[in-house]
Automatic annotation (TrEMBL):
SUPFAM superfamilies: P-loop containing nucleoside triphosphate hydrolases
Provenance organism: Chelativorans petroleitrophicus
Keyword Transcription in annotation: no
GO terms, molecular function: ATP binding; ATP hydrolysis activity
InterPro entries (UniProt xref): AAA+_ATPase, ABC_carbohydrate_import_ATPase, ABC_transporter-like_ATP-bd, P-loop_NTPase
UniProt-recorded name of the protein: ATP-binding cassette domain-containing protein
Length: 272
């Protein structure tokens, strides 16, 4: 296999808010074609980390290295220009515009007639139809206003748009919080489809089952540090719960091999 540098590498990232040390020396890597689930208790530092990656916050210290090059994003717009974006459900779509308009948003195809730019609706429609078809996403009509689409369909549009315009790393913060069971399942499938196209995905979720279903790797943040960085096929929900809680829920934190009667497994996290 090639020795490409990771899509994103964080080195000793720390973040202080006054006296609060939200992150304390976080190291991690995310590779293209990989889904990483970020888990951790409330206040562990997940959102702070995601904001640092996506340019919403600057670290107090540490380095962000993207594809081998150190980066210092001063704003979400700068991170976005580099191909890193947080997709917040619904927030980035214009509800009273149709699918095609949302897909292009600021990148419309126009032709000039006597100096006046004219939208090339047919050409734009064809681009969107192909992008969605390639991703296996079905939307009844591309001319439907987004307000009439389901939460899952909206997510599909956002993710496909991200990939289509050259996005490299997408950050999803609790992307299925408002979705039902079936839509969530489709959303998880869709994440696997977009990641197969060579992007990286970081998903924050409180639902353990989702992490195991969609992620290649789970990174646990606890009290601002990386408490675990494991492949999902080499760990168990019990072990991950131990990492999240510091081993306080399943005994002394030593008996991870047994996975016997960990009380928390799946309960707190069980999907709807
Ligand atoms: N803007 C801020 N000013 C001061 N403290 C902050 C700020 N943002 C986060 N913190 C603190 O930093 C710590 C980490 O918070 P963060 O929101 O990153 O955790 P989280 O893991 O995302 O939690 P949750 O799952 O509850 O969203 C917390 O102690 C929080 O109170």
């Amino acid at each position: 296999m090639s020795e490409n540098p990771p899509l994103l590498k964080l080195e000793a990232i720390s973040k202080n808010f006054g006296a609060i040390e939200a992150l304390k020396g976080v190291d991690m890597e995310i590779r293209a074609g990989e889904v990483v689930a970020l888990l951790g208790d409330n206040g562990a530092g997940k959102s702070t980390l995601v904001k640092i990656i996506s340019g919403g916050l600057r670290p107090s210290s540490g380095r962000i290295i993207m594809e081998g090059t150190p980066r210092d994003f001063a704003s979400p717009a700068e991170a976005k220009a580099a191909g890193i974006e947080t997709v917040y459900q619904d927030l980035s779509l214009c509800i009273n515009a149709d699918v095609v308009a949302n897909f292009f948003m600021g990148r419309e195809i126009t032709k000039r007639f006597f100096g006046i730019p004219i939208l090339q609706e047919r050409a734009m429609e064809a681009v969107v139809a192909k992008a969605l078809a390639d991703a296996g996403t079905r939307i009844p009509s591309l001319r439907t206003n987004v307000e009439h689409l389901s939460g899952g369909q909206r997510q599909a549009i956002e993710l496909n748009r991200f990939v289509h315009w050259g996005g490299k790393l997408v950050l999803l913060d609790e992307p299925f919080a408002a979705l039902g069971v079936e839509q969530t399942r489709r959303g998880l499938d869709m994440i696997r489809q977009v990641v197969a196209r060579g992007i990286g995905v970081v998903i924050i979720t409180h639902i353990m089952a989702q992490a195991f279903q969609v992620a290649d790797r789970i990174i646990v943040i606890r009290h601002g540090r990386v408490a675990g960085d494991v492949r999902t096929d080499e760990t168990t929900p019990e072990q991950v719960i131990d990492m999240i809680t510091g081993g306080t829920l399943s005994g002394a934190g030593k008996g991870r091999d047994q996975g016997n009667s960990s009380p928390a497994t799946g309960e707190r996290e069980s999907s709807q």
